[in-house]
Each structure stands twice: as C-alpha cells, then as structure tokens.
Amino acid sequence: MNRNDVTEMIVATKIRKGLKWGDVAKTVGLSKEWVTAGCLGQMTFDASQAATIGDIFELPQEAVALLQVVPYKGSLPTSVPTDPLIYRFYELINVYGTTFKELIHEEFGDGIMSAIDFKMDLQREPNPAGDRVSITMSGKFLPYKTY
Amino acid sequence: MNRNDVTEMIVATKIRKGLKWGDVAKTVGLSKEWVTAGCLGQMTFDASQAATIGDIFELPQEAVALLQVVPYKGSLPTSVPTDPLIYRFYELINVYGTTFKELIHEEFGDGIMSAIDFKMDLQREPNPAGDRVSITMSGKFLPYKTY
Amino acid sequence: MNRNDVTEMIVATKIRKGLKWGDVAKTVGLSKEWVTAGCLGQMTFDASQAATIGDIFELPQEAVALLQVVPYKGSLPTSVPTDPLIYRFYELINVYGTTFKELIHEEFGDGIMSAIDFKMDLQREPNPAGDRVSITMSGKFLPYKTY
Amino acid sequence: MNRNDVTEMIVATKIRKGLKWGDVAKTVGLSKEWVTAGCLGQMTFDASQAATIGDIFELPQEAVALLQVVPYKGSLPTSVPTDPLIYRFYELINVYGTTFKELIHEEFGDGIMSAIDFKMDLQREPNPAGDRVSITMSGKFLPYKTY
Amino acid sequence: MNRNDVTEMIVATKIRKGLKWGDVAKTVGLSKEWVTAGCLGQMTFDASQAATIGDIFELPQEAVALLQVVPYKGSLPTSVPTDPLIYRFYELINVYGTTFKELIHEEFGDGIMSAIDFKMDLQREPNPAGDRVSITMSGKFLPYKTY
Amino acid sequence: MNRNDVTEMIVATKIRKGLKWGDVAKTVGLSKEWVTAGCLGQMTFDASQAATIGDIFELPQEAVALLQVVPYKGSLPTSVPTDPLIYRFYELINVYGTTFKELIHEEFGDGIMSAIDFKMDLQREPNPAGDRVSITMSGKFLPYKTY
Amino acid sequence: MNRNDVTEMIVATKIRKGLKWGDVAKTVGLSKEWVTAGCLGQMTFDASQAATIGDIFELPQEAVALLQVVPYKGSLPTSVPTDPLIYRFYELINVYGTTFKELIHEEFGDGIMSAIDFKMDLQREPNPAGDRVSITMSGKFLPYKTY
Amino acid sequence: MNRNDVTEMIVATKIRKGLKWGDVAKTVGLSKEWVTAGCLGQMTFDASQAATIGDIFELPQEAVALLQVVPYKGSLPTSVPTDPLIYRFYELINVYGTTFKELIHEEFGDGIMSAIDFKMDLQREPNPAGDRVSITMSGKFLPYKTY
Amino acid sequence: MNRNDVTEMIVATKIRKGLKWGDVAKTVGLSKEWVTAGCLGQMTFDASQAATIGDIFELPQEAVALLQVVPYKGSLPTSVPTDPLIYRFYELINVYGTTFKELIHEEFGDGIMSAIDFKMDLQREPNPAGDRVSITMSGKFLPYKTY
Amino acid sequence: MNRNDVTEMIVATKIRKGLKWGDVAKTVGLSKEWVTAGCLGQMTFDASQAATIGDIFELPQEAVALLQVVPYKGSLPTSVPTDPLIYRFYELINVYGTTFKELIHEEFGDGIMSAIDFKMDLQREPNPAGDRVSITMSGKFLPYKTY
Asked: Which residues form a coiled coil (chains A, B, C, D, E, F, G, H, I, J) (predicted)?
C-alpha cells in the first residue's frame, strides 16, 4: 500500500458515502483547501488529524500511518495538464507569468512568493452576470540576499 | 518588426527612464495587472490606449499599430518555467491542481473557471513575520451543458 | 474502481451486445456527441442519466455513482495523437490554427471560442464523389475584457 | 527570402494598411478560410492568385514566386499550442477525440475524415446570450481497404 | 479484455504453434502485409475474416468480436522508435523526408500520398552481394483543392 | 557559410529559374531521388558532381566546396513531422512498423534493412480512380551475427 | 508471457544461483558480450542456444521458445539514461559524437559504422593508477552509394 | 565571439585549405581523437596548443584566447541524434547499455567507467569482406565507496 | 521481485515500525546519507550489510540477495522533479550550474567533481531566524587529460 | 540589449583581460559564489555593485542599468544538462534526491530547504589521493503549515 492507494480509498469512500470536502474540513477543524490537498496526497497529517480522516473514510490502520508520512508531491499526470479546469490555471501562468514577475519585483525587489509559507481561500462570488470563482492566495515574500 | 520587438522596446525604455508599471497603469487608467500584461505582449490595446503607451515608451508608429493587433499569447520560453518566481506558481498547480478541481466542482458542478472573463489584483500584505504577496483572482464560472 | 474502469466496462458491453451510440443517445434523450463523450469518460451524468446508462450497459452500482462524478478529462494517451483519424484533427489545428485565430479575431476582437459553452453535430453528407463527414461546431465567443 | 519572410511581410502590410482577410478573399475570389491559410504560409497559390496577393500586399517579385511553391506546413511553434484561442481547439480534440473516432467509425466503418479534401466555413452566429462562433467542417471520408 | 490483449494472444499462439504470417494470410485470402497489420492490432477484420483468425489462433469469442472493432492505431511505444529495424524507416524519413516532399510536389502539385488508400508489398530480392529487402508502396495522390 | 546556407541558395535559385529536380538529376547523370536529397543537404557530392551542381545553381566556390563535405544529416525540424505529406510516411511507420518487423524477420531472420546501402524510386502510377504515388525501396538485408 | 518476463526470470535465477555472465557465455560457447545482450532481451538465440540458456536458468518451455523470437530491441527506460554507468557512454557520444563523425568520414568517406555487423570485447586493463575498463568495438564500414 | 564561432571558423578553414584532422593532430603532437574534439569545441587547449591551432587555422587573437577557456560541452543539437553515423552509437547504447552495465559490474563491482580519465583510438581495420571501423576505449574504473 | 519491490518493502516496514534512517545507519555502522540511498535502491550493500538491513526490515531471503546486486540507478520519476523539496535542488543547478562550472574550472582547470568518489553530510544548523539545512558535499576533482 | 548580452560582454572581457572571479568578488566585497552567479545573469546587483562591475568589465551605461533589473533566471539551455561538470550535479539529484527528501523530513518534518534564503561556499580540499571539491550549502528550512 502506498499513499496513492490511500488517496484512491478516500475518493472511493467519498463517492460512496456522498461526503463533501467542506464537511470533512470542518470535522478536521482546518480549511477546506488544505484538508482537500492532504486527502489527495499532497500534505502531511499529524496523528490526531490522520485518525479523524481515518474515521471519516473508514481507512485501515496502515493507511492512517501513511497519512502521517510526508508524500512525494505533484498531483498531475503530465507536465502540461489535459483537464480543462486545471489547464486554465496553467494558461494563466503562461499568459500572466511575466506579469506576476514584473509586479512582484517592482513591489518587493528580487525574490519569490513562497509556495510553502502559503495559504489560499476559494469562494463562490455571486454575480448577476453569472457567479464567479474567487481565489485569494497569500504567500510570504522571500528575498534573495547577497552573501 | 513584430510584437516581441515592441515588448523589448517597452522594457528597454522602462529601464532607461526608470518607469514603474503602477504609474504606467495610472496614466492609461486601468489596472496595473492588465496593463503590464499588455505591455509584455499578452493583451490587445485599443487605439487610444495604444497611443498613450506609445507616448510613454516613445514607440514608433508601427509599434503603436502592433499594440492594437491581437498577439499570439504565451509569455514563457519553456513548458515548465525555469525562473524561480514563476515556477512557484507552476508548483502550486502541481500540488493544488486537483484540489482546485475538487473544490470548484463541489461548489459549482462540472465546468471551469474562465481564464478569459477573468481579472486579478496583486497587493503587498504587511505582516510582522515578513510581508506577504496577496493575489486575488476572480473568474466567471462556465458550466458544461448537456445538449 | 475508477472512471477509466467504467469506460472499459461500457465499451466491452457495447461490443458484446452490439449497441450503437446513436441508439444509446436516443434512450438517454440527448445528442449522440455529448452522450458518447460522457460514456467515454469525459462528461458528467446526472442521477437519472447515469441510471439509464447503467441499465443499458449493465453497470454495477459503484459504476453508476462514478458516472455522476466530474472526471479528470483528456481522452488521448499522447500529446500528439497516433491514431490516424484523430491525428487528422490535430493536423487541421496545425495547418489552420493561425487561420482560426486571424478570422475569429477579425470578426470578434480579442477573445476565444468557448470549448465549454460548446456543442457540436456530426453528420454524414452524401456526395456522389464519395460521402463526406460534416461537423458543425458552435461555441460562445468570450471576449477578453480590460479591467 | 523564405516563405516565412513572405508571411511576415503580408502580416506587416495588412496591419499598416488596415486590410481585412474577408476583403482580401473577395478580391482573390475564394473563401476567406483558404485565402487566409494561404497568406499565413499553409497553402499554395497559382500564378494569377499569387499576382493578386502580390498587388494587395505590395510584395516583391521573389515573394510572389514563393507563394506558388508548396510550403512546409505547420503554423504553430509548439506541439501543444500556448495561445488560448488555438488551445481551445486542441482541448476539443483532447476531450472529444475518442468521440469523433467512435461516431465516425459507427457511421462509416474504418477510415478517416480527409484533412486534404476538406473545406470549412467560419461564421458569426448571433445569439442573445452572446454571439457564437460557428464552424462547419466538411471532409471526404476515406475508407481503409483490404488488399 | 482489449485489442492489445488479443494481439498478445495471437503472438503467443503464433510462437507456440510455429505459424507463419504468410500462411495465415493465405488462409484469410489477403496480402500478408494487411493481415499481419490486422493481427498486430492496426486493422479491422470483417466477421468472416475474424472467424478465420479466431480459428487459426484459437481465440475466445470476445477476442473474435474485438477483431471487428476499429482499433486505436499506433503500434510503437515511443515517438522515436528504439528498435533498430524500425528505426531505419524513421531514419529514411529524417534523411529523405524533404526529398519525398519535393519530388511528389514536382510531379503532382500540392497534396499528399494517402496513407489510407494505400497498399504495399514486401519481397526478398535475391542479390549476389547479399539479398535485399524490396518494398513497393502505392498510395493515391490526394490534391489540396482551393475553395 | 554552412551546408544549410547552400541548401537555401539552391532552393532559391531553383524557384527563380524555374528548374525541375528531374532535369537537374539528368544533367548530373544520377537518379532524381539521390540528387534531390544531396541538393537538400543530405548527401555528399564528389568534385565533378559538385561542379555541375554549382553551375546549375550559380553557386560561389565556397558553396561548391561545402557540397563535397559529409553533412550532419536529418532534414526535419521536429521529431514528429508537422507537414502533412511527410507526416503520412511517419504514420505508415506508426501503423505498419511492427508489420515491417514481423515480415522482414520471418523472411530473413534477425537483422535490419539497410538505410545506407539503399536506393529508391518514386513514380506516378496512372489510375482511373485517381493517379497514385508509387515508391519502390530496396535496401540490403544486414543480419545480426553471433560472436 | 513476453520477452521481458523471460529477462526477469533469467536475472532472478542468476542472482539466486550466483551465476556469472562469463560462465554462462562459456557454456553457450560464444562471447560474454553477445550472450549477455541476448539474455537481457536484445538478441535472438537459435534452438540449441536457447535450450542451453533454458537449462542454465531453469526456464519453462514457453520462455525457451520466446528466446528464439526476434525481440523488440532497446534496453533503456528513458531516452537519456539515468543510471550513472550507462550515462557515461551517452556523455561520450554527446562530447565525442561529432569527433567520431569527422574522423570516420576523413578515413572512409560518407557512410556509417554498422551497429549490426558489429562485435565488441570488454576487458579489465590492469593499471597501477587504478585498473581501467577497455572496450574494443569493431563495426563494418557501410558507404552511402550514389544511384 | 563565442566558442561556437571559433568552431565554425576552424571547420570553414579546414574545408577551404583541405586540411586533415590527422595532420593537424601531428602538428599539435597529440592524438587525432583529442585534437579533433578540441577543435570541435569540446576540449580545452593550453596556451601553446592554442597558438599552434591558431596558426594552422589562421584564427584571430580573440579566438586563440577562447580555445584556452573550458567550454560548455555537448556537441549534438538534439537528445536523440538524427545523423545516421552518430545515431548508430546511440543505438549501441540502447541495445548494449544494460550489457555494459552487467559486465562491468561483474568484473569490477559497483561504480562506473570514467568518461573523464578516458582515452580512445579509432582505426581502419582492413577486412576482405569490407574494411571495419575499430574503436578502442579505455576509461579508469571508479568505484562507489561506502562512507 | 525486483529492487523496486525491495525498496517498497523497506519503506512500508519503516513506517509500520516507526524506524528512523539515522538509527538504521548506526546499526549498519555507516553514514545515514549512504545507508538511506542504499535502502532507497541506489547503492549496493555487501553481504554483511545486506543481512543487517534484512534483519531490521524483516526482508525475505530473495530481497536480501537483491540488495547485493548493483541497481539501475535514478530515483526520480520525471526528468524535472515535481516534489517541491527535490525541485529546489534542481532549481539550484538551474540558477547556479554555470557558477559551479566557472568556479571549479577557475580553481582546478578542465575536469569535473566526481559524483562517484563522493560523500556528503546533511545536518541541522540551529539559527535564531529559523533553523537551516546544511549540506556538505565532497567529491574528488577529476581532470580531463590530453592524450 | 538584454541581460544575456551583458553576460556575454562580461565573459568576453574576463577572457580578454584575464580576470578571475575570485578577484572580482573581492573588489565587489561579496562572496565569489554570489558575484559569479550575478555576473552570469542570475542575480540582481544594487546601484553601487553594478557600478563596480561596470568598471571592472568596462560596460556601457545601458548594461550597468540592466544589472540592476531582476533577470529571468535559469542558466542552462536544456532541461537535462549536457555539460559533464554540470551533469554530475544533476546526477546527484537523480541518485540522492529521495535521500535528501527522507533525511530532511526525518529531521525537520514536512517542508523544504529554501533555494532563496540560501548561501553556499565552494573550496578546494587538499587530499593526497587527489584534491577534492568541497561545497557547503546552507538553506533555511521552510515548514509547510496547516491553515
């Protein structure tokens, strides 16, 4: 059994029991973004979180142990994603990537936005012309230093 | 002369004159995100916007005309970006891509977040533990329909 | 069991029972294009549609549940398709892609033809010099907006 | 001078003189789809057509000669297109490719839709919910034969 | 069971029973080239041909049905083949590809040699300096037409 | 100046003077297949052949010298060709590659068809249903030997 | 069972019984280089050689038959090898490839060193500064001929 | 001017003056293999060697200086070589790579054959059945050590 | 069973028994860096080390034998790693690779740092601004020699 | 002029004047590792540092300005490096990447070693068996946090 098997168990049980990620996250007591990423094999749970996840998804003990091991990250099967929803994010980087770079450097100087010390929030934004997906990302700026 | 040459002219003049994208955007009267993307060859300006950009960056007439032609988009030289700042966004898609997919489908059903009917805002978020980059994206949800 | 397994079950039963996609679509009450795409794992059925598909293809309950979950889309095993029929469509994009771009921008300005708010119809076009395949695609135009 | 240089000359003159592909096509007396593809370096003009194109775009004699030579086709710089408009067509093949295959084989048997004995028509389709792009493709069916 | 499994069954039985493709083709009553391609999963048999193949290779009923379904074509595992015999054909295209293009266009104008309305014949050519492989290919010329 | 520049000079002069490869080959006294491949930068001419080519295409002395140097071979810009005519040959390898392998090994045992001790002939084959391209290839069989 | 399974059986038995390739080759009566390549699935054994290999590695009858079938060659999982020992050979081609080309053409004219009519010998070369690996390759020169 | 420009100068002068690598190497006083690799931009000359090379090929002072700078190595334009002569070496690694690995490890244990502390010798081997290319490589064995 | 299966057994047992690599290494009596690499399938153990590893991880006899066979090295599934921790090392090579090259050549001349005669040490470096990872690598310099 | 042009100017002047990176770094007053990376186009200089670099390498004013603009990072032309010195570092990641991952997670938990808040030191390590390259890297550990 590896972490990928655990992800498949979680997804299968979620469908069978008709669970929602938002409710799972509330039971765990953390954001739906982080908990979903963890259930999909991208984050590491501590013992108590793993036990909760194990209860919700009726996982065997070996799977609960695996949830506490840092996984090999990367959730996509190809370097350019084929799924239309995920591709749109890749397209945004292709179109706006150099814009991100210019504006962050203009404001902060040389460095990056951390993808580790990072959190995000995804919400429905009601709109008469059609509801919108609103995503707010917040990552610590990390400057390159001279030495 | 092609659009890429125009981008290089703009960038060279920006460095020489010490301009800031934020100020350019104010003169044009639009957001700094969209104006920067346009100056970097990803968006199409109308005649009046192009004239303003032409004045700011001292562009020849042919370049001003090119700013009004829809460009072949895609601002990165490789399918996996090598620049650390831009890579972090690619990494976020790799790690969180399936999470985006699950949460948007849970909230909206089958469909995508538009990367066309889309806007974003990038801000400095002061923080005693180190300032943060805050990015808010808003894209219309487009549902797949049966037919 | 995952969505790919469901697709294989559907295809195997279709061959064994000698079914036709056109007849399946009529039973479901939707177009043959959308129903076939759904049966091949690219679209999401609602509960009633999934039940009908389940009856036709004698699927187990778990498979019927999976038909109602948004799939990870992308039906081809390689980025350049090897199958001659499918390659011809890829070739059309390679040869006519910039023509699509020029003509759509000339008519509509900067933006795209939606691949989500999209439908298509595929018909046999009788012709004495050899019958033809006729495909009509219709996608909403989505303009890039300034902001 | 090569065919690519001719394409760049044509595009530059088109922008400078504010020409439209539709009007160019009318002068040539053929469809806007075929004429645009030819001007973008994908089709071969005969002597009279090339002379007309040469007049419209003020091309030198060497360029007019090149328009009559069969070009090395393929108009895109990468195997997966980065431009959002062109990518949507690639996405359609990724999502609907196996559907095209199933439905054409169901109707016609083993074979392909020709991308050579092929024509297409691209129109604006007015729609109160937003105008649509309508594309009709027609290609001869070519059967695999036993031998 | 899928078409690839059928190919593996055929190849295993061929080795076990010491069959030859040439003899299989004679029993089927078609060329050895087409029959071998079909047995290797690239062509579609009709009911009577499939029954014959099923008898020769002792295939189960499900396999015989699969032989009559149009397969997803493409028989090589990598885009540049690693097997030395097959690579030599790829090398010929690499070295002579532009020559094919020039000579066919010189003789026929713009268009292609069909790979669908196509047949070939492979023979041993006795030669005192070492026997030679002789391959004769014949494909219909398909012209690009203006429209 | 490199061999690629020489190829471009030859092609430009051929267009300007309206030459035909078949006539060039007759003047050189060799097959049109080999001479065209040489003119396109894939073969090495001897001093006398190079002088003839130099006369026909009005090449400078340095170019005539380069025609006598063994070139770095490979005439295609991408590993999967984008040009429809050349792609059809690649498709034939994809579909028939394993058939070539089976039939050649059945007739000759383990080994390859040489792509070096190789010649070919390309002819128009008149046919009331549409003329055909006929290509005859002949390559020495080279057996793997044990040692 | 396929040839790859046979290779795995051979390797597993070799480890279990502590065999050496050099001794296997002596029993077969051929060079250790060719026999090892054959055991690793790259060469074709005749009936008597296959029987010997079958005895040594305790292979079932089906495996012995497979050893006599020409395999699909290519023993590496990626186009740039990751294993350090094998990579060093790839590096030699990267660094010395054009040198091989220049020196062979200087000595022999246009053509190649055969990789089919080829043999090699790998030996330990004692050296006080550290023993060396000595590899001698011998391949027939095959000239390109005009025709 | 960069090292690649120097290589092009050397090659152009070699063709113009009809020089041979073997003679150049004799003048330099080293093997033809190493000197050719150096002239092709893969090795670093010392001051005296560079002066000699500069005299032979009539290089400007800046080029002579560049010959003494360690180059960025790698002489091939693609990861799988397209040139038939060079490809044969790549094919040998593909077919014999795992054999090299097995035999070297059998003789020496875990480690590699150095591609740095390495030399080789390339000779014509007369043979009544056709002369052969003989290449002898010698590289120090470097063992992995535990620590 | 192959080496990869052994790695999976080791990792599963490590999780189940809550072992630490540092403690495993102490029992084996070597550095934690080398022992971990070996347990992950990259190094070769001798008989006594393998027996110790077998005891710790409760491996079957066949697995203990496999630990003593030189593995096919390369521990990552893609050529550009997707895991954020491992990617950072790849990024360092991308950003600092040419710097490594310049500084090592400035100090040592043409040659490389051995990745075989190599050892490393990974430590926690306490720091009030956040603890740091400290890695010390030491590899023998291997000079290119003339011959 | 772009940053790459500035790098080429710096490298050309360094060769012409026989400068050493170590001395350049001393004049700038920072480490040789960071200064070299900056001169090779990977880091951003402040005004005073850029002026010093400009003096040393006799750069024009426009180049000095470019040194103060954050560059698009990534110094290698291919995703797998071809240069033997740089490849050895890539090989270390391939062989030891999962070891880095295991040991850092064992010591620190889930997170990464920063490649931004990072410094390194490269030294010659005298050794009677051959001098060694010693590289010490130090990067801040950045933990993934739950939210």
From this structure: none
Query: Over the stretch I72-115, which tens digit does the pLDDT of each residue have?
Result: 999 999 999 999 999 999 999 999 999 999 999 999 999 999 99
Strand order across the A132-143 sheet: A111-125, A132-143, B132-143, B111-125
For this structure, is H88 an active site residue? yes
**Fold of the domain built from segment(s) F113-147:** Cyanate Lyase; Chain: A, domain 2 (3.30.1160)
Q: Tell me: ipTM over 0.90.
A: yes
Distances (CA, A) of F86 to D71, E37, E141: 12, 21, 13
What does each C-alpha distance from I10 to I5, I28, J38 come to in angstroms? 9, 15, 44
Q: Among positive and negative, which fits the CA dihedral J105, J110, J113, J117?
A: negative
How close E129 gets to chain D, by Cα (Å)?
A: 32
Which of chain G's residues have a Cβ under 8 Å away from the Cβ of I2?
8
Catalytic residue check, B138: no
* Residues of chain A contacting D94 with CB distance shorter than 8 Å: 82
Q: Judging by DSSP bridges, how do beta strands F132-143 and F111-125 pair with one another?
A: antiparallel
Query: Distance between CA atoms of J11 and J28, rounded to whole angstroms?
Result: 17
The torsion defined by the Cα of F40, F41, F45 and F51, in degrees rounded to 10, comes to 70
Cβ-based contacts of E20 with chain F (< 8 Å): 106
Region of I41 on the Ramachandran plot (φ > 0 left; ψ -120 to 50 alpha; else beta): left
Sequence-distant (≥ 6) Cβ neighbours of residue I93 within 8 angstroms: I100, J76, J81, J86, J89, J90, J93
C-alpha distance from A100 to closest chain B C-alpha (Å): 7
Q: Give me the residues paired with residue G135 across strands.
A: G122, H137
CA distance A113 to B134: 9
The band of D59, judged by pLDDT with boundaries at 50, 70 and 90, is very high
J and C adjacent (3 or more CB pairs under 8 angstroms)? no
Is F1 in Cβ contact with H84 (below 8 Å)? Answer: no
Alpha helices in chain C (DSSP H): 3-17, 21-28, 32-39, 47-57, 61-66, 84-108
Residue closest to H118 by CA, chosen among I147, E101, B78: I147
pLDDT tens for E103-123 read: 999 999 999 999 999 999 999
Task: Name the active-site residue from D75, D114, D134, D138.
Answer: D114
For chains I and J, what is the number of CB pairs under 8 angstroms?
221
Q: Which CATH code for domain J84-143?
A: 3.30.1160.10
Signed CA dihedral, J83, J84, J88, J94: sign only: positive
Q: What is the pLDDT of residues J41-71, one digit of tens each?
A: 999 999 999 999 999 999 999 999 999 999 9
Q: Extract the tokens encoding A107.
A: 């404001």
Q: How far is E145 from chain F (nearest CA, A)?
A: 14
According to the model, what pLDDT value does residue G58 have? 98
The per-residue pLDDT for range A91-111, each reduced to its tens digit, is 999 999 999 999 999 999 999
DSSP label of G59: -
Q: Give the C-alpha separation, J94 to I115, whole Å.
A: 11
Q: What does G80-141 look like in DSSP terms, one character per residue?
A: S--SHHHHHHHHHHHHHHHHHHHHHHHHH-SEEEEEEEEEEEEEEE--TT--EEEEEEEEEE
Low-confidence ranges of chain B (pLDDT < 50): none
Q: What is the CA radius of gyration of chain A?
A: 18
CB contact under 8 A, J129 and I140: yes
The one catalytic residue in I8, I62, I88, I132 is I88
């035909």: which residue's tokens? F20
Domain at G3-66: CATH code: 1.10.260.40
Percentage of residues in chain C having pLDDT higher than 90: 98
For A61-86, how does the pLDDT look when each residue is reduced to its tens digit (9 = 90+)?
999 999 999 999 999 999 999 999 99
Q: Categorize the per-residue pLDDT at A126 as very low, low, confident or very high, splitting at 50, 70 and 90.
A: very high
